[in-house]
Amino acid sequence: MKLIDKLRNKRHLEDYEYEYLLTKLSDNEKAYLFEQARAVAQENFGNKVFIRGLIEFSNYCKNNCYYCGIRRDNEKVERYRLNKEDVLECCQTGYQLGFRTFVLQSGEDDSYRVNEMSDIIRTIRDKYPDCAITLSMGEKDKHTYEQYFHAGANRYLLRHESINEKHYASLHPEGMHIQTRVQCLKDLKEIGFQTGSGIMVGSPKQTTQNLIEDIKFLEELSPEMIGIGPYLPHEDTPFKEEAKGSMDTTLILLAIMRLMHPQALIPSTTALATIDPTGRDQGILAGANVVMPNLSPLTMRKKYQLYNDKACMDDEAAESLDSLNKRLEKIGYTISYDRGDFKGEKDV
Ligand code: SF4
Asked: How far is the centre of ligand 1, averaged over its atoms, from the C-alpha of 61 (Å)?
């Protein structure tokens, strides 16, 4: 327990101490870790969970990450792109339901020209000045990020996946480099985006040492948002036979992140809800404070599967919000309809 108190107070541990937390905790110690992480989340956010409306606007991707269901070489995927009107329709639905953050997510799809994408962002910004716009569109050059920022986007999610060069290379084909991703993250922060990064827990060949390196990288980067979810295999990828990540380790890492980054926005991910029906609740009870319900059209959702059996595919946004609310109430939480910026961010 001393180690957990130390992490809460100092927000930093030695490598061997992280190793203990990741691999040797007893059930009692785990319960104490989650309790402390929950207390820190509650100190900062009360018993509130922010919601983000996820709009998966294109499942085309030029990349071929070995773990991803919408990788370029997966010919079984039925590809789609939403146009500007479709995206605006999703925003309208979301806004009426109370969402004040829209997350525009896609594969790395270069068919949206920078001007076209900026126009979509600018239109959302003009129509919904009280909303945050989050982008999750992969690696771009700094100038492109700047244009999106100036068009009105506020936040950008880009998981680094593994800071260890060798491990990163085992997850991604030649031509993709962790250095590029780190540069993108630095550019995003420099431009002024609230920036999110993170990893999959239990991705193939990941070692405990890799996880420690990732913890230290995130400590240095100090992102405003941290995405931690278990690795889940997809049957049409080279990693189809690989074992899924551990829910336990995911929750431990999530709690460590909360203790190290008290004010970070940390989602309880759909991957957690997929690995276990109570996964989303457990994520919140381990210190997460964000949930991202899907606003994408129902017909498109099944086509946007990074892994198999993705949870929450069949509910309309309104239904899913309703059931989310009920679930949260059962564990003593409620939805916050605030925009939920990282504290200290200037108004935009
Ligand atoms: S993980 Fe992202 S970049 Fe990689 S193939 Fe999937 S959508 Fe594309």
From this structure: 6
Strands (E), the chain: 48-51, 53-58, 101-106, 132-136, 155-157, 194-201, 225-230, 290-291, 334-336
- Summarize pLDDT for 235-294 with one digit per residue, the tens: 999 999 999 999 999 999 999 999 999 999 999 999 999 999 999 999 999 999 999 999
The residue whose two tokens read 């900026």 is 118
* CATH for the 2-336 domain, from 2.60.260.20, 3.50.50.60, 3.20.20.70, 3.20.20.140: 3.20.20.70
Nearest to 257 by CA among 218, 296, 290, 307: 218
What stretch of H or E contains 258? helix 247-260
**pLDDT tens digit sequence for 67-122:** 999 999 999 999 999 999 999 999 999 999 999 999 999 999 999 999 999 999 99
Amino acid identity, position 160? H
Classified as helix, coil or strand, 17 is helix
| CA dist 223 → 33, 83, 159 (Å) | 22, 31, 10
Tokens of 39: 């207390």
- Residue nearest atom 5 of ligand 1, based on CA coordinates: 71
Domain boundary assignment for the chain: 2-336
Which pTM does this prediction carry? 0.96
Q: What is the longest distance spanned by two Cα atoms in the chain? A: 55
Distance 73 CA to ligand 1 centre (A): 11
